[in-house]
C-alpha cells in the first residue's frame, strides 16, 4: 500500500512538472496545482438556440400508445440548458395525408413544407447531464374520420430505432421558474407561495418538470396543487412518478384526477375540469397564488380560463403554456 501511495505521488508530481514546463500551469502551491488538474472541465449547455443533434439510446413503451425516449447529448457531462418551464423543438420529415392537401380531415397548412417541428417539455430532471428524456403519446392512423392520418411527429418518433439521431433546437417559451417561488412570466417576474396546476393529457409534461424542480429543492417553500384531466385511467401519464412525489412530500404536493370515462369504483372526479373541482382542489385566489395551465386548446378556453374567472382568479395570476 505504501509503495502504491508513492507511485501515485510520483505520477502526480511528473504530471505537474510536465504541465508547468509546457506553460499550461503557473507555478502554484501543490494543492492548488492538483485542484487545477483534477477539477471538472466547464461544459457549455447543449441548447444554445442553434439546431443540434441528439441520439436515441433507449426507447420504452409505457402504455399501448405512449413511449419514453432517452436521448444522449453531445457530451456525457453536458447540461441540457433548458430552464424549467420552457421547451425544445423537435424536427422531423413531413409526410402527405391520406387525402392530398388535408390532414385528419382539415386543410394541411404544412403540406408544402419539407419538414415539421413540434414542441416538447422533457420529463428528466433539470439537473441531469448527458441525457434528456421525453414522454410522447403516439396518435396513430385510424380507419375512420376524423383521425385518418394520426399525429405527424408522434408517428415519426415511434419509428425511431436505437442509435437514430434527431434535430432539436431551443430553448423556447415565455415561462421560467427561477426557484423558491419566483417565476419569470413573459415580461414580468412574480413571486408566489402557492401554485395551482391544471393539466390535460400530454400537457402534464411541463407541469411535471416544474413539480420535480420545486420538490428537489428542500428549501423551496412553494406549495403545489395539481388537477390532472384525461379521457381514461390508462391515459394518465407519469402517474407512478407523480404519486411517488405526492407520497414523499404530502405537505408540498396535492394531486387530484378527473376522467371523462372513469372506471367502476373510481375515487376521483369525472368529467371536464369544473368550477367545483377548482374550488375544491386548488388554492383560493390571492396575491400569493398563481395558476398554470397546459393542455388542449378547448380545455384551456372552455374548462380552465372560464371557470377560473368565475371562481375569482385575476387573469394576471393565470399562465397558460
Automatic annotation (TrEMBL):
Binding annotation for FAD: 118, 120, 135, 137, 152-154, 205
Subcellular location: Mitochondrion outer membrane
The family this protein is said to belong to: Belongs to the flavoprotein pyridine nucleotide cytochrome reductase family.
Organism: Cyclospora cayetanensis
Protein name from the UniProt record: NADH-cytochrome b5 reductase
Keywords annotated in UniProt: FAD, Flavoprotein, Membrane, Mitochondrion, Mitochondrion outer membrane, NAD, Oxidoreductase, Signal, Transmembrane, Transmembrane helix
Domain named FAD-binding FR-type: residues: 49-178
Catalytic activity: 2 Fe(III)-[cytochrome b5] + NADH = 2 Fe(II)-[cytochrome b5] + NAD(+) + H(+)
Entry annotated with the keyword Transcription: no
GO molecular function, one term: cytochrome-b5 reductase activity, acting on NADH
Pfam annotation, one family: NAD_binding_1
Signal peptide positions on this chain: 1-22
GO cellular component: mitochondrial outer membrane
Gene it is expressed from: LOC34619122
Coarse class of the protein's main subcellular location: mitochondrion
Domain of life: Eukaryota
Amino acid at each position: 500500500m505504501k509503495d502504491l501511495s508513492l507511485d501515485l505521488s510520483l505520477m502526480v508530481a511528473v504530471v505537474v512538472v510536465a504541465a508547468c514546463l509546457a506553460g499550461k500551469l503557473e507555478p502554484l502551491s501543490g494543492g492548488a496545482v492538483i485542484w487545477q488538474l483534477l477539477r471538472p472541465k466547464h461544459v457549455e449547455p447543449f441548447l444554445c438556440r442553434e439546431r443540434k443533434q441528439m441520439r436515441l439510446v433507449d426507447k420504452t413503451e409505457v402504455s399501448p400508445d405512449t413511449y419514453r425516449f432517452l436521448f444522449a447529448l453531445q457530451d456525457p457531462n453536458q447540461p441540457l440548458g433548458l430552464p424549467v418551464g420552457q421547451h425544445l423543438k423537435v424536427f422531423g420529415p413531413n409526410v402527405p395525408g391520406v387525402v392530398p392537401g388535408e390532414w385528419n380531415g382539415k386543410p394541411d397548412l404544412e403540406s408544402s413544407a419539407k419538414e415539421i417541428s413540434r414542441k416538447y417539455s422533457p420529463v428528466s430532471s433539470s439537473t441531469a447531464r448527458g441525457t434528456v428524456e421525453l414522454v410522447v403519446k403516439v396518435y396513430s392512423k385510424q380507419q375512420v374520420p376524423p383521425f385518418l392520418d394520426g399525429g405527424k411527429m408522434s408517428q415519426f418518433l415511434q419509428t425511431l430505432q436505437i442509435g437514430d439521431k434527431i434535430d432539436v433546437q431551443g430553448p423556447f417559451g415565455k415561462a421560467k421558474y427561477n426557484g423558491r417561488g419566483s417565476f419569470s412570466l413573459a415580461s414580468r417576474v412574480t413571486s408566489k407561495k402557492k401554485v395551482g396546476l391544471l393539466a390535460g393529457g400530454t400537457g402534464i409534461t411541463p407541469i411535471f418538470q416544474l413539480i420535480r424542480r420545486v420538490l428537489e429543492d428542500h428549501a423551496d417553500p412553494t406549495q403545489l396543487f395539481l388537477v390532472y384531466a384525461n379521457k381514461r385511467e390508462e391515459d394518465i401519464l407519469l402517474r407512478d412518478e407523480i404519486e411517488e412525489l405526492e407520497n414523499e412530500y404530502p405537505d408540498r404536493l396535492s394531486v387530484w384526477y378527473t376522467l371523462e370515462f372513469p372506471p367502476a369504483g373510481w375515487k376521483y372526479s369525472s368529467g371536464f375540469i369544473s368550477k367545483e373541482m377548482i374550488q375544491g382542489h386548488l388554492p383560493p385566489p390571492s396575491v400569493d397564488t398563481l395558476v398554470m395551465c397546459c393542455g388542449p386548446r378547448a380545455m384551456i378556453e372552455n374548462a380552465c380560463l372560464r371557470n377560473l374567472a368565475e371562481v375569482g382568479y385575476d387573469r394576471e395570476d393565470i399562465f397558460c403554456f
